[in-house]
Amino acid sequence: MSRRLTSFQLRNVPLLSRVGADRADALRTDIDAAIAGWSDALLLRVDSRNQVLIADGRVVLGKATALGDKPSEHAVFLGRVPDGRHVWAVRSALVAPEDRTVETQVLDLRRAGHIFDDVSAQLVATATALLNWHDSARFSANDGSPTKPSKGGWARVNPVNGHEEFPRIDPAVICLVHDGYDRAVLARQTLWPERLFSLLAGFVEAGESFEACVQREIAEEIGLTVRDVTYLGSQPWPFPRSLMVGFHAIGDPDQEFAFHDGEIAEAGWFTRAEIREALDHGDWNSDSSSRLLLPGSISIAREIIESWAALD
């Protein structure tokens, strides 16, 4: 009999949870001080498809003054990089760096998160989330009045009544269900191609705790009753504005699957050896003929699976 395992931890910080810059939140309320750094500030351009320019594993940051002598109304303040310079972001067409010898790529977080350094990962994740929120928050949820950005892009104000709205985040849980030994559940959504499997996930409902959401979502999606729901870590997922909150929980392999809500096409219990083999074949973008293709490194799902699979 294998050694019983009831708990484990993530081996690494999820890629999009890395911290490399100072968010400098005090400057959001002292906007004059934030603007005072504009003359030597850096600018991150994010296009309409949430793509950015990348060079040598870093996001390309241009000169903020290229926009003018002060931030535009729709620029968002991201904080300070380690050398102290301020960084702002705008929704804009991408502009090649002044140094034409620098080779650049156009990529988004999904395709570039694994090659980013910590500073780039934080800046692009934050900019993507903020700009996505502004795109969909131009009118007040209270009375439909047009709203205006404030606090360096970290709020929007209704000019009619002064009501402030702040960036919306949709929390979602993601959970690895295992048997306490060497088997874990992987599932494939109905919209995914054959062989693409991942963990079970779902959005938190009003009035619901994270732990209760884990139990409800797993029961709805595959019919299992789980226990010992344990927190592992979290990761921003700005597609468009989610926060993924990771857990593991124990389930019973003798309980039959039941696909109640139609989101899951198939699910199965896989051994640690099978999952290790699938991890060795790469991820969803691999051309491997492996029975399983698992999420890429940008997802907290990958980190959870790898951390569990690495256990003795």
From TrEMBL:
<dbReference type="InterPro" id="IPR000086">
    <property type="entry name" value="NUDIX_hydrolase_dom"/>
</dbReference>
<dbReference type="Pfam" id="PF09296">
    <property type="entry name" value="NUDIX-like"/>
</dbReference>
<dbReference type="InterPro" id="IPR049734">
    <property type="entry name" value="NudC-like_C"/>
</dbReference>
<dbReference type="InterPro" id="IPR015797">
    <property type="entry name" value="NUDIX_hydrolase-like_dom_sf"/>
</dbReference>
<keyword id="KW-0464">Manganese</keyword>
<dbReference type="InterPro" id="IPR015375">
    <property type="entry name" value="NADH_PPase-like_N"/>
</dbReference>
<dbReference type="Pfam" id="PF09297">
    <property type="entry name" value="Zn_ribbon_NUD"/>
</dbReference>
<dbReference type="GO" id="GO:0019677">
    <property type="term" value="P:NAD+ catabolic process"/>
</dbReference>
<dbReference type="GO" id="GO:0035529">
    <property type="term" value="F:NADH pyrophosphatase activity"/>
</dbReference>
<keyword id="KW-0479">Metal-binding</keyword>
<feature type="domain" description="Nudix hydrolase">
    <location>
        <begin position="167"/>
        <end position="292"/>
    </location>
</feature>
<keyword id="KW-0378">Hydrolase</keyword>
<dbReference type="InterPro" id="IPR020084">
    <property type="entry name" value="NUDIX_hydrolase_CS"/>
</dbReference>
<keyword id="KW-0520">NAD</keyword>
<dbReference type="Pfam" id="PF00293">
    <property type="entry name" value="NUDIX"/>
</dbReference>
<dbReference type="GO" id="GO:0006742">
    <property type="term" value="P:NADP+ catabolic process"/>
</dbReference>
<protein>
    <recommendedName>
        <fullName>NAD(+) diphosphatase</fullName>
        <ecNumber>3.6.1.22</ecNumber>
    </recommendedName>
</protein>
<dbReference type="InterPro" id="IPR050241">
    <property type="entry name" value="NAD-cap_RNA_hydrolase_NudC"/>
</dbReference>
<comment type="similarity">
    <text>Belongs to the Nudix hydrolase family. NudC subfamily.</text>
</comment>
<keyword id="KW-0460">Magnesium</keyword>
<dbReference type="GO" id="GO:0005829">
    <property type="term" value="C:cytosol"/>
</dbReference>
<dbReference type="GO" id="GO:0046872">
    <property type="term" value="F:metal ion binding"/>
</dbReference>
<dbReference type="InterPro" id="IPR015376">
    <property type="entry name" value="Znr_NADH_PPase"/>
</dbReference>
